[in-house]
Design brief:
Layout (H helix, E strand, L loop, with lengths): L2 H55 L63 E6 L2 E7 L4 H12 L6 E2 L2 E5 L1 E6 L31 E4 L11 E4 L11 E7 L1 H10 L7 E2 L6 E8 L2
Antiparallel strand pairs: 1-2, 1-10, 2-8, 3-10, 4-5, 4-9, 5-7, 6-7, 6-8
Length: 277
C-alpha cells in the first residue's frame, strides 16, 4: 500500500470518528432539550391546576357595590309608594336588638278614631328597646287618633319599614302593610305644622307621614338627626327616651346599601301603650 493511500484511509477513519462523535453529541443535546421541554410543560400544567383549585376555594369574594339606583331625595311624605325591598331580612346587627318577630296581617281598619281622652305619653316597646314619646297638646286631633290606635292594638306587631340616611334622617313606622301603603282607614287633618326653615324637624321630633295635605293616617316618622323638610308634616310628639337606640338602628344603614329603604336592622313594635297624667 502506498503512503498516500494509507494517509487517505487514516484521514477517512478520523473523519468518520469525528462524525460519530458529533452525531452522539447532537443526540445528547436533543435528549436534554426534550427533558427540559417536558419539565417546563409539567410546571406550567401544575401551575394552571393550582391556580384553578385556589380560585375555586378562595374566600376573597369581592363585595357587591351598593345599588346606585336607590333614591337619595325621597321624603316620608308618600305612603302610597312602596318602599320595602325584596331583599331578605337581615339578622339583628345591633347588639341591643332581639330576634325579628313576625308582623301582624294588615286587617284592622276604622271609620274614624273613637271618642277617647288624649294621652300624655306613648311608649313603643320594640324588639330593639323602648321608645317613649311625650305627646304634644298642640296637635290634639292627631294625639287623640294616636291614643285611639294604640289602645286598639293597631300598632302591635308592626314594623318600622323605612329608613332614610342622606339629607333626611328619619325612621318611619306605623304601617301594618309594611310597604308604605297601609293605614287605619281614615285620615287626620294637618295641625301643629312648623315654620319653613333650617332643621325645622329637629332630632327627637315625631311627625305624621302623608301623601299630601290632609292625608295623615297611622304612619309616622321619628327624626333621629336634625332634618329640614317642607312644613307639611304634623308634629305630635317628642322622643324623651330611646332616641339613642333609633340612632343605633340608623347607623347600621339600609338593607341594600342605599340611603332610602328598609332598615338593615329590622325593628318591630311589639306593643304601643299610652299613659295619662
Amino acid at each position: 500500500m502506498s503512503g498516500s493511500k494509507r494517509q487517505r484511509e487514516l484521514a477517512r477513519a478520523k473523519y468518520e470518528r469525528q462524525q460519530a462523535r458529533r452525531s452522539a453529541s447532537h443526540e445528547r443535546r436533543r435528549t436534554r432539550q426534550r427533558i427540559v421541554a417536558i419539565a417546563v410543560v409539567a410546571v406550567l400544567v401544575l401551575g394552571a391546576i393550582a391556580y384553578v383549585v385556589l380560585g375555586m376555594t378562595s374566600d376573597d369574594t369581592p363585595v357587591a357595590a351598593p345599588d346606585p339606583a336607590a333614591s337619595a331625595d325621597a321624603t316620608p311624605s308618600d305612603p302610597t309608594t312602596p318602599d320595602a325591598t325584596d331583599e331578605p331580612i337581615a339578622e339583628p346587627a345591633v347588639l341591643s336588638c332581639g330576634p325579628v318577630l313576625p308582623v301582624r296581617p294588615n286587617d284592622i281598619t276604622f271609620d274614624a278614631p273613637g271618642d277617647v281622652t288624649p294621652a300624655d305619653t306613648l311608649t313603643l316597646t320594640t324588639t330593639c328597646g323602648d321608645i317613649v314619646i311625650a305627646l304634644d297638646p298642640e296637635a290634639p286631633e292627631t294625639v287623640r287618633s294616636e291614643t285611639f290606635l294604640a289602645e286598639q292594638g293597631f300598632y302591635d306587631a308592626t314594623s318600622c319599614h323605612r329608613l332614610t340616611t342622606d339629607g333626611i334622617f328619619v325612621l318611619q313606622c306605623g304601617d301594618p302593610a309594611g310597604d308604605g301603603t297601609g293605614g287605619p282607614g281614615y285620615s287626620v287633618p294637618d295641625e301643629n305644622l312648623p315654620a319653613e326653615g333650617e332643621a325645622n324637624y329637629p332630632a327627637g321630633t315625631v311627625a305624621m307621614a302623608n301623601a299630601g295635605p290632609g292625608t295623615s293616617g297611622s304612619q309616622f316618622f321619628i327624626v333621629y338627626e336634625d332634618t329640614t323638610l317642607p312644613s307639611g308634616y304634623t308634629i305630635w310628639g317628642t322622643v324623651t327616651s330611646g332616641l339613642d337606640m333609633v340612632q343605633e338602628v340608623a347607623s347600621v344603614g339600609v338593607v341594600d346599601g342605599g340611603s332610602d329603604g328598609a332598615p338593615r336592622q329590622p325593628m318591630v313594635i311589639e306593643t304601643a301603650t299610652v299613659a295619662r297624667s
